[in-house]
Description:
Blueprint: E1 18-21, E2 31-34, E3 38-45, H1 48-55, H2 59-76, E4 80-85, E5 88-93, H3 96-112, E6 123-130, E7 133-135, E8 138-140, H4 142-153, E9 159-162, H5 163-169, E10 177-187, E11 191-200, H6 220-244
Parallel strand pairs: 6-9
Antiparallel strand pairs: 1-2, 3-5, 3-6, 4-5, 7-8, 9-11, 10-11
Helix pairs in contact: 2-3, 4-6
Amino acid sequence: MGTTRPGSKRAARGTGSSLTRAGSPLYGNEVALPGGTVTFLFTDIEGSTRLLQELGDDYGQVLSDQRRILRGAFEAAAGREVDTQGDAFFFSFPRAKDAVRAAVEGQRALSEHEWPRGAEVRVRMGLHTGEPTLGEEGYLGLDVVRAARICSAGHGGQILVSETTRALLGNDVPSGVSVRDLGEQRLKDVQHERVYELALNESPHEFPPLKQAETDRRDDLGQRFEDKINRYVEQQLEAALGSLGEGTEPPRPPSKRFRWRRSRKT
């Protein structure tokens, strides 16, 4: 697997290359993010506000346990932590099947864990595979938005994947997992996307229909990532319109660049 030298502004696309930062003020210690074709995995605790109200100070232990469990499962499958906000994670993986395996192992570990006061902690997960641009400030591209929206459409305990990720997974489905075609869904900023559910055979949950764009419901993940995604989409549209109009009008001052920043581990 080839790599770009530290400090390079962009990793080569489609080669599996990565961008490494050593001692970056944004990323803390040395970080290597996979480039080329990557699979994004977003996670979020469903009903975190309700859990906080019910558990009080014990909710801090829930967060700590959830982070430890998911980091262990994701890093064991070669995942790289891109961002962490509260109880939400954003990881990237070089291979789709590794990301799917990580999601399944993460859900199983969460279901087996004994939570404070017997609380029911349910985490939704969304995966999408694409070829984003990887630059100094992290991942750029609508693939990030797509993965986040797929996660937001789901329910706690559910694993959702895009059509692209499903195609790359092929028959390499983890043991004890069934694939369900949920059909074409309307997701905010994404519009039509065919979504699949990876159902754990041991899970008794029957999930409601996915959240659609027109319901205008704001869930926990949406509240945390909504502003970032909206600024990002605006920046992408602005860049596209600017390239079409080159040479016809003076360029506008550049807007603040959108960042998917990696938080220090807590």
